Amino acid sequence: MQRIRENAGLAALAISIASLVLAGSGAASATRGSGGGAAQGSHGATPGSSGATPGSHGATPDSHGATPGSHGTPHGSHRPTGHRARPGGTGYASYHVSASPRAHSLLLLNGKGKFAPAAIPTVKNAEELDGMKVETLSSCEPDTVDLGTWCLMSAPYPLTNTQLGQNNYFWASQKCVELGGYLPTAAQLIGAAKRVRLESTIHDSPLTATIDEDPSVGLKDQREMTSTLVTTVAGSDAAGSEGVSVGSTGNPRTSEPNPVPLPANPAPATLQYVTVYSNGTKGGFAGSEPVSAPENFRCAFNKVPGAIDKEES
Fold it and tell me: Does pTM top 0.70 for this prediction?
């Protein structure tokens, strides 16, 4: 009988502990649902329940949920910094709440509704992109002039003997793209006239312009190609035409007649590029030339390289 009484006492103690654990879990859930006792200071919604009548548990200034700064104050000072996760526990009350980064914790925002700087993870090698330094990405090549967000060749593209005569609008545009850049507009070149030695007349200053200075090869006024295009006559054909291929047919469903074959004209003389010159660093227009005509040119580049800057094999 003595042993039975001892076992009964241990069983009662175990049941009491289990009841306390379950009651604590229920209180945490009630705290989350009611804002920690801020809803009129009551612990339930049933009229007449604990905390529903004046002077009841939670309704007076001395209650468990109405006193400023108490556990569940409506002023938002409830910061359970000491709750650790319980086995099988769920909900916010199961975790640490901290103003600084901690493992398995909830991070509080600061007074401005933002994370603290220490909470923002750093990036390894943040000063490099694809192996290139930030300085490299934001700087111009040695043979170009830095014009803020873009770069411009400091001199016209150096043609080889075999390339002479090929440097028309198509060739120049493709060469600039091959180098990772583009053919600049008339506005860009004129805008850069005070910073870059553009081609010019033989009487311009060699300090501010690129001019012919060797009499043995002839002294000639020079100008530069731009990507700006104009047409010399009216009509859509002035900008070229892809023609009509032999074998093209009309739409039989609409009884459309077959089109008449026409030759293509991809480089019409009426489509011309605008040229510019230094004009004493003021910039000036020097007329236009057909897109098929060769001319001196230089390339422009953005400081951030493009996704593809060389031909794919």
Answer: no
